[in-house]
Structures are given as structure tokens and as C-alpha cells.
Amino acid sequence: MSDFSSTETVDPTISRATRAATEALGVPALVVDDVTVQFGGIVALNHVSFTIEPGTIHALIGPNGAGKSTCFNAITGVYRTRTGSVTFGDAVLTKLPASRIASQGVGRAFQNLALSPSSTVLDNVMLGRYHLTKGGFFSAALRLPWTMREERRHKERAAAICEFLGISQFLHTPAGLLPYGVQKRVDIARALACEPKLLMLDEPAAGMNSAETDNLAELIKDVRDEIGVSIMLVEHDMSLVMGVADHITVLDFGKRIADGVPSEIQQDEAVIRAYLGAEEDEITDEAIEAEIAAENAAAGTGDIAAGEHVGTGTADADDVSSGAGASPVDPESEKTR
């Protein structure tokens, strides 16, 4: 990964068509301002600030333990911040529970697939429409005419998203029977189904081969160009990052060490040093969980460790439509809201 300076970069200029689609969708900027997240004695994010401009593909990169996933989870409401704020247009995301993030126009695809393997592709994607559904349990159970019309509209929209992503032939196939690369597309389709203005992708190329990664790069650019959404990308694959990102923010040990277009990042000495190795200990997920477990044990509590916000396997409709897998976690008290 340390030789990423030789990777071809993308032209950071946003096309006129993309800008028009972004303006039509009303995409605002995401502003991360002076955000700190602390787990006991571990400062996972240390006064981090950056802005994702409307219609851009913005990558967040850094070595293992840099704080990328923590930042991701702070934005989506899984972790509470100790200082600072995250705003998306008029919405202050850091004041909202994770279950309300999707309704503000933020969709998330998971690093570890949270699909229901026994459910069809269409049913998995339909989960992303959950927060857009007006009907309740009883109206759906009674199969009232208006709820049936609403369900039909949601299914048509979900099917259209699947067609756009090239997975319409698998609509009625159980997700667990599909190749890994196709399952990743199903996950992205579900995130798009919630009609986001910002699509957050957490290591989408993890586990993919080079051909699948190349296809993913084209897909990410197509989603931005044709739908008009902004995209935040957390990724370790530097060839993918440099090939699709308009702007890059680099973290190391919880601090922002660089911010700029790909060509600037490739030449940044601090970034090169970070990827060649560092003398400090890594702030790993295991270290965070150990710190929380020690505090819980000392307090005699059985609270869930903050690092366990998303498990593998299935997730319910509230989780997947909001982009969260658990209640928000206060890093100081480790108590859920």
C-alpha cells in the first residue's frame, strides 16, 4: 500500500451533468467540525474536521487504527462525539439518534454484509424503503387498497435500483446464494433504496478480486454521475481510491494529517510516512474494546462494547434503513440512549 504514489488519479473536476443532477436532488454539504471521540483513555478521533462538497466522491483513508471506522460511526450516529458536530445541510446529525439518520438523506452500506441470506434480493433492497413507508402494521395486515398501491410503488422503485446496478436478474434469488461481489451490489442497492443524498460506503472493495474491484470503481462513478448523490468512501485499496475520489482526507492515529485532491495526497510527506510505518502503537478496534471492557468490569456492568455496533448476519428494518446496527454509544459512559 505504501507505493500508492504511482497510482493513476481521477480528474477532480465534476462534470456539468453531475453538477446538474446534484443540484436537482438538492444535495447539501456534509461538514465534520472539530469532532472528538474518546473511549476511556483512548482518543480514537482527535478534533477532526473536513467537508464533503455536494456531488463529490470523498475518500477517507489512513493506516489501520487511524480512526476511519470511528469517524464513519460518529457521522451515522452509532458513536456519540465528545466535541464538535456533524451537519448535513440544516440537520445536525450529532444531535440525532442513529434511527433518524436515514431520514436526513444519509444512506450507508456495511463493511460486513448485513443481508438476510434467506430473503430474496428484492426483499433485502425493500428494507431500505422502510423509513419511507407511510402504512403501519395493521393497515398492511388488512391489505388496504392504499397500502397495496404504496407497496407496489416501493417494489417498482427497488426493482429500478436493482436494474441500474445490474442485478435485476437476481430479484427473486435468495441473497445468500449469490457471489460475494453481487451481494456487495445488493448492499449498495439497499442503501440507495432509502433515497439518500449522501451514500456512505465502508470498505466496499474488501474481499473482492481485482476484476470485481474494477467493476466496483465504475459502479461508484456511475452512481455519483447519474443519480447525483455525494459519496463518502472509506477504503484501503489505494488503486480504487485514487481512481474514483475527487477529494481525500487522511487520518493517522485519530488526527487529520492531510486533506486535498488525489495528486496532492500522493505527494504529501506526512501521508507517505504514515503508510510506510509509524512509531506509535496502533489504535485498533481490539484496543478500544479492551479499554471499554476494562471500564465495564470495574463498574460491574454488562454493557455492550462500543466496537460491537454491527454484527454479521441479519439486521432488522430499522437498522438497515438507518445505516446503523445498534443504539448510539456514548464513548464516555458506554451507555446507550
Automatic annotation (TrEMBL):
One of its GO terms (cellular component) is plasma membrane. Residues 303-337 are annotated as: Disordered. The keyword ATP-binding applies. Residues 30-278 form the ABC transporter domain. It holds the Pfam family BCA_ABC_TP_C. Keywords: ATP-binding, Nucleotide-binding, Transport. PROSITE patterns: ABC_TRANSPORTER_2. GO terms for molecular function: ATP binding; ATP hydrolysis activity. It comes from the Bacteria. The keyword Transport applies. This is ATP-binding cassette domain-containing protein. It comes from Epidermidibacterium keratini.
